[in-house]
Amino acid sequence: MINLVTSLINFKKNPLSKREKDILRLVEKGLTTKKVAGQLFLSEGTVRNYMSTILDKLHAANRITAIQIAKKHDWI
User: Fold this and answer.
1) Whole-angstrom Cα distance, residue 5 to residue 27?
2) What is the 3-class SS of the chain, one letter each residue?
3) Are 55 and 66 in contact (CB under 8 A)?
4) Half-sphere exposure of residue 29, counting CA atoms within 13 Å on the CB side?
5) What is the pLDDT along the chain (76 residues), one digit of tens a residue?
6) How far apart (Å, rounded) are the C-alpha atoms in residues 50 and 11?
7) Please, is 57 exposed, middle or buried when counting C-beta atoms within 10 Å of its C-beta (0-12, 13-18, 19+)?
8) Tell me, what's the pLDDT at 9?
9) Quick check: pTM over 0.85?
10) CA separation for the pair 42, 73 (Å, rounded)
11) Which fold has domain 2-72?
12) Contact 16/57 with Cβ under 8 angstroms?
């Protein structure tokens, strides 16, 4: 129970780094992994790793859900 309460309290703070927010904003605009990588001068693998981390942090099953959660909390 304590872990759940702690988790909920921490979830109210923005768990995303600046780079993760940048990536999520570009994904929200409809950019592919390849285009996000090109715009941010990253490899596609790095973008996929960031997206995996974002999904884990937001407990989201997919990109759309991650965007919805981030927008709901005004994180992006």
Assistant:
1) 31
2) CHHHHHHHHHHHCCCCCHHHHHHHHHHHCCCCHHHHHHHHCCCHHHHHHHHHHHHHHHCCCCHHHHHHHHHHCCCC
3) yes
4) 11
5) 555 555 554 556 889 999 999 999 999 999 999 999 999 999 999 999 999 999 999 999 999 999 999 999 999 9
6) 18
7) middle
8) 46
9) no
10) 27
11) Arc Repressor Mutant, subunit A (1.10.10)
12) yes
Asked if 50 and 44 touch (Cβ cutoff 8 Å), the reply is no
CA distance 49 to 72: 23
- For CA atoms 12, 14, 20, 23, give the dihedral sign: positive
In the chain, domain spans: 2-72
Pair of tokens at residue 21: 């927010």
What is the spatial distance between Cα 55 and Cα 64, in angstroms, rounded to a whole number?
10
